[in-house]
Amino acid sequence: MNWQAYLKGFQSWLRLEKSLSPNSVQAYIHDIEKLLQFLEYKKWSRTPQTISYNDLKEFVRWISELGMTASSQARIISGLKSFYKYLLMEDVVSAAPTDLLESPKLKRQLPDVLSVEEIDKLIAAIDLSKPEGMRNKAILETMFSCGLRVSEVVGLQISHIFFSEEFVKVTGKGNKERLVPVGAAAVKAIRLYMDSIRVHLEIKPGNTDILFLNRRGSKMSRVMIFLIIKKLAKDIGLKKSISPHTFRHSFATALVEGGADLRAVQQMLGHESITTTEIYTHLDREYLRETLIQFHPRA
């Protein structure tokens, strides 16, 4: 059985058993294909059963010399470990050569965040005289109010908005659903958009329950939201490098700095592991340190 046959099985396992998105599945397959490129470069005849820990160490050294960042190397190693987990489950191999493979140490980057004042300026810069203005305001209010991923924003369904309870049901990574509170400002902006703009659109089939639509009545793309935010940042002269994800970071940071319970923040963000959410405690400590330096007489 050749590598391609195993890759096909791995692809099905990721999609059906792990419920990963097509983009995530493709990223995992791409990681294994990198290993195959290395084997071809070395002219080594290896199968998943015969490849060794030393072979994989050599592969990691190779991708490092190609100039791949530590985070890219870590992602590829994670992909290899998942592949061998699948092969173990299918009894293709009896041991995984990836068990002792270590990822490079990563320096956790603190993401750029926006203050409430900066978010207010971005929203105030929206031209509400244009049809898309009210929609864009509702999008920004929703992102900051709920801390949603951009994919969750574009996929948000009207039937999943509970206006009276002020909650939205969100479908996140791995098709996992969660309930997230939505603030009054976001609810007001959504209602205005629905009642004054969306109601007049000629909606394309299959998009009737999608909340945010483009002018052609279809679901918006993630790139479109990215461009909206970039333009607003330019309009107000904001020097920070921001994206839709910045609103998610800003949401989480505002909660943690306000003293919110980390488990509650984890649930609202839809993080599978608390360690992912803990980056915001580091950010909070950085904020406290800067405050000390700025205001303490002995600092």
Task: Write structural notes for this entry.
- With 299 residues, the chain is mainly alpha-helical.
- It has 2 domains: 3-89, Tyrosine recombinase, N-terminal domain (DNA polymerase, domain 1); 116-294, hpI Integrase, Chain A (Orthogonal Bundle).
- 56% of the residues lie in helices and 4% in strands.
- The chain has a 3-stranded antiparallel beta sheet with strand order 1-2-3.
- Strand 1 and strand 2 form a beta hairpin.
- Helix 6 (131-146) packs antiparallel against helix 8 (184-196), helix 6 (131-146) crosses helix 10 (244-257) and helix 10 (244-257) packs across helix 13 (279-295).
- The longest helix is centred in the N-terminal third of the chain and has 21 residues, at 22-42.
- It is globular, with a radius of gyration of 23 Å.
- It starts with a helix and ends with a helix.
- The model has no long low-confidence stretch (mean pLDDT 86).
Secondary structure: elements and pairs:
Layout: H1 3-16, H2 22-42, H3 53-65, H4 70-89, H5 116-124, H6 131-146, H7 150-154, E1 161-162, E2 167-171, E3 177-181, H8 184-196, H9 222-235, H10 244-257, H11 262-269, H12 274-277, H13 279-295
Antiparallel strand pairs: 1-2, 2-3
Helix pairs in contact: 1-2, 2-4, 6-8, 6-10, 10-13
What's the short version?
This protein has 299 residues and is mainly alpha-helical. It is built from 13 helices and three strands.
Properties at a glance:
DNA polymerase, domain 1; hpI Integrase, Chain A; 13 helices; three-stranded antiparallel β-sheet; globular; 299 residues; mainly alpha; 2 domains
